[in-house]
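Subject: Protein record for review, amino acid sequence with backbone structure tokens
Why sent: The fold of this protein is of interest and is recorded here as tokens.
Enclosed: The protein record, placed directly beneath this head.
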Amino acid sequence: MSAIFKRKSVRRYLDKPLKKEEIDIIMKAAVSGPTCVNSKDWSFIVVTDKKMLNKMADLNGKPAEPLRGAALGVLICGDYDKAFMYAKDYWVVDGAIAGENMIIAATELGIGSVWLGTWPQMDRVEAQKKLFNLPDNQIPHSIIAFGYPEDPNDLKEERNDYDMSAIHYNNW
């Protein structure tokens, strides 16, 4: 639970590559999440190349600036061919679950991250699709930037800004 409660959006990173073992754990966490009828309707592009991270940032707009300093960016895609045939749009939920799993795993490893929206902003979706030459069945969902936090305190303490007023029991 510690990683869940310490998780924060980290946007500034040290200029230091992640270890392959850490990337492997983050990606294993991604594919460990549940998907609609176990469709596993996601795919991922793992990017460590600085030029590609900059291009991804250029195409996803100002909120994607953290990619420029990140050691790793992961483009989460929905695989529409694998999506549940009776409710194809569950791919969106499945991609979000995979992303959250990656973020929690990274936090546990002392790696900062920030979720960068792509879908449903179709200009961003199409731009990432073109950049990576994705086949028609692959739909860009989101990008997550990862790196060792520039501020070592970013992931040390539990957050204290919980809004418990959003929780209701048995009815509104």
Remarks:
- The CA atoms of residues 17 and 110 lie 13 Å apart.
